[in-house]
Amino acid sequence: MRNPITILEDAFKHNFGVLPQVIVKAPGRVNIIGEHTDYNHGYVLPMALEQSIYIAGRTRSDSILNFTALNTQRTSIADINCPVRNPIEPWMDYIVGVVAELKKLGFTLKGVDGIIYGEVPIGCGLSSSAALEMATLKLFEMLNEFHLDDVESAKLGQRVENNFLGLKSGIMDQFISRCGKKDHALFIDCRTLNFELVPLKLSEHTFVISNTNYPRGLTDSKYNERVYECQKAVEILQKSSGKTGTYLRDFTLKDLENAKNDLEDTIYRRALHVITENQRVLDFLSALKNSNIEDLGILLNESDYSLQRNYEVTNRELEVITQIARSIEGCIGARMTGAGFGGCTINLVRKDCTEKFIDTLLSEYEKATGRKGSCIISSPSDGANIVKRY
Fold first, then answer.
1. What is the pLDDT of residues 334-375, one digit of tens each?
2. Do 264 and 311 sit in the same domain of this protein?
3. Which of these, 45, 61, 86, lies nearest to 185 by C-alpha position?
4. Residues spanned by the domain of 25
């Protein structure tokens, strides 16, 4: 496989006749545990992937943004002074959204010629969108000679999703894409934005990410509906408990059980998932620090069952692939990861069983669903950074 740097240099010279000024990258992510907790001000534990989005860029003398996505061979042009969405080339919205938020902060930006090359699979729950946002931000930082704090960078990326794209997502994806560190997971408190880099060196085990290759479309999915359902649960819990909390993070399992008769079954189950998932993240963190592998597997499985039954964000493909995974020798635990409705799963597997695990999983999954899945093995990587200056 050709080096992404060489690919980008060749493409940039072909398109623009010169080398870029800089190449940057930002990683995709896999969320180990803590699903649909971030926008409820809860806890998450993601890790950055080795697979990244790369951008080569050079400033222009005007306000034009001229970007080409190599993977799809699509080109789009926008104007810094008119940051609007592009219904024909929606991938460009992530770049323009970053520009729009930077302009709100008062930054003066130069036009850019850019080439994008991505290793992160699109639409499968590994946050290619957040990687593109954080790579774009790093590019503009380098070309315009300013620097944002890491937490402020993550907040900016979240505003792109919330304000520009209309997706009521939390802050986790941008946070890990910006702040990830090699050989570490990142424990994030999504309320305080305090975070802890947690060593992730599993000597005899590894995480295998399996892609159902059933694509998701978050903005068009039921993601925003789940956000609303959680808000509805909070309103009822406030009245029932007398607490002034504004997110499910503020309520206990006891509060929820006391209010059960006041809650529709669906709303109750949504809240049940979030409250118990927050505790699972804390328990997972403890088990990880104590190298308690069996507990890690149990917590992954419990998270998956709750996402199926209580939060209802799985589909047949996700349920089939996790069920198959748990039946294969060497698999300690498995769960869907990402927002759901398709996409990927994460599996904790003994290293000496990894090759057989992948072969069996993909073979049995195709037999059961007719779809060809795929797998990724990745060590935790660093967050957004500069690849090369010229």
1. 999 988 888 999 999 999 999 999 999 999 999 999 999 999
2. yes
3. 45
4. 4-200+381-389
Query: Are 139 and 218 contained in the same domain?
Result: no
Catalytic (active-site) positions: 173
pTM given for the model: 0.93
- Region 46-74: mean pLDDT is 97
- Tell whether 296 and 313 lie within a shared domain: yes
CA 189 to chain CA mean position, Å = 16
The answer to whether residues 135 and 241 belong to one domain is no
Task: Please give the DSSP secondary-structure letter assigned to residue 82.
Answer: B
Q: Are residues 305 and 195 in the same domain?
A: no
> pLDDT digit string (tens) for 12-27?
999 999 999 999 999 9
- What CATH number did the domain enclosing 234 receive? 3.30.70.890
Helix (H, G, I), strand (E, B) or coil at 116: strand
Burial label for 216, CB within 10 Å (0-12, 13-18, 19+), is buried
Statement to judge: residues 177 and 229 lie in one domain: no
CA distance 230 to 309: 16
Count CB-CB contacts under 10 A for residue 204.
Answer: 9
**Distance from the first to the final alpha carbon of the chain:** 23
The token pair that represents 388 in the structure block? 């090369």
Residue 217: per-residue pLDDT: 54
pLDDT of residue 2: 84
Rounded distance between C-alpha atoms, residue 265 and residue 253, angstroms: 15
Q: Are residues 62 and 159 in the same domain?
A: yes
- pLDDT 10s digits, 203-216: 899 999 999 999 77
Number of domains in the chain: 2
Q: Where are the beta strands (DSSP E) in the chain?
A: 22-33, 43-59, 64-69, 74-79, 112-118, 184-189, 195-199, 205-211, 331-337, 344-350, 374-377, 385-389
Burial 150-184 (b: 16+ CB within 10 A, else e): beebbbbbbbbbbebbebbbbbbbbbbbbbbbeeb
